[in-house]
Amino acid sequence: MVAGETAMTLALADSLFLSISPDAARTKVILFLAVSMAPFAIVAPFVGPLVDRMRGGQRMVVLMVAILRALVLIGMMQSLDSLTLFPLAFASLVLAKTYSIAKSSLVPSTISGADGLVEANSKLGQVAGITGFIVVIPVGLLQLISSQAALGFGVIAFLGAALNAKRLPKSVVATTPADALETEELHSASVVAAANAMRVLRGIVGFMFFHLAFWLRREIAGTAWFGLAIGLSGLATLGANFAGPSLRKKMRVETMLLLALVSVGMVGIGTAWYGRITGGILLAAVVNAAAAIGRLAFEATVQSGAPDANRGRAFSRFETQNQMAWVAGGLIPVIFAPAGWVGFAVVGVVGIAGAVMYARMRGMTIGSRGGRATDRARRSH
Fold it and tell me: How far is it, in rounded angstroms, from Cα 263 to Cα 9?
């Protein structure tokens, strides 16, 4: 999947974004983001539980997504100079987000142990990052020949992903609806606080991606600068996935989430003051690294705070919410088109506000734990 995604991104860098005026691109991206939110807001709450209870349901979703993405790329190969390219690109992103949700359901069902999920997702992040950078070389060479050649590489990659999807276990993510204990644990103060912090981080990632894309266009910085931003963000995410498990051994998960938000806030404020292209690219890398660290901390929080919950079902739902936060965050800079430093300041303020909100909610959690401990002590006497 990563190889196909990389091929599509490089092939469309010029054709999709730079071939039309910024205003025309803005209108189409707004439509695209609005449409891409619909499957997560409407379909997922109803179809998701049904797929979870089907034997091999999520495996079927991954298989279908891989095949459909290959077909979408075939359509793109014939539509590079046509407006048809935009709905195809929209469909591809929706499919990518659908795969991310299916993966969030499947991974927990294939591992065991208290720390298994964090380690598994950390390794998956490492493999994805390394694969993306390796694939850049052959795809870049094919792009010199033609965008169709690069997209053809992506078709082969997605078909290969479909073949590999057949090797996934035919597991059932959730055989029964959530019971009262699972619902209570997933709505505990610690899990809710971590989930809110994660949505803030994912919203910032979506905001920063589209803000930087359109701002660089207005600065006439070109595709190379945006490509550099994507490349550095990928490296930062890869580094965070390598460092995350070690950080978790040295500090509490609450501290990891708080530091992720504070880092985004401080670097965002500093970048707003600096206000240059290199600062914006650095901020994008920090935001993506913080989101990766935050995700590992969030997963550990759910594992410890909701031990009786069905993790496949729970993380599928959380990932759906996170994808909606990404879309909502991306809509803001596309609609309002803030100046570069204003957008960076927004990232900084939201990061700091998210840190304060998380710290206050965690304080409430600690207090409630203390209260329960006091009640138990009183009853024992």
Answer: 28
